[in-house]
Amino acid sequence: MSNKKGMAKREAYAKKQEEQGKSVIKWIAIGLIVLAVIYYVWTLTIIS
């Protein structure tokens, strides 16, 4: 019986970790896009 509880806890933990990982990846991608836009604007101001 406790083995089933342990498996359920591990599965719940794995699902939680996966969701947190996806969130981190999303924020890293957003950060990179924002940095790319800032760099683009910065290069336009230098060239002009």
Averaged pLDDT: 92
Question: Low-confidence spans: pLDDT under 50, at least 5 residues?
Answer: none
* Structural class by helix and strand composition: mainly alpha
Number of strands: 0
What is the molecular shape?
A: rod-shaped
- N-to-C series of helices and strands: H
Total helix count? 1
Main sheet makeup: none
Termini gap: 71 Å
The level of helicity is over 70%
**Strand residue percentage:** under 5%
User: Measured on Cα atoms, how large is the radius of gyration?
Assistant: 21 Å
Report on this structure.
- The chain has 48 residues and is an all-alpha fold.
- It contains 1 helix and no strands.
- It has one helix spanning 2-47.
- The protein is rod-shaped.
- It starts with a helix and ends with a helix.
Task: Using brief descriptors, characterize the structure shown.
mainly alpha; 1 helix; 48 residues; 96% helix; 0% strand
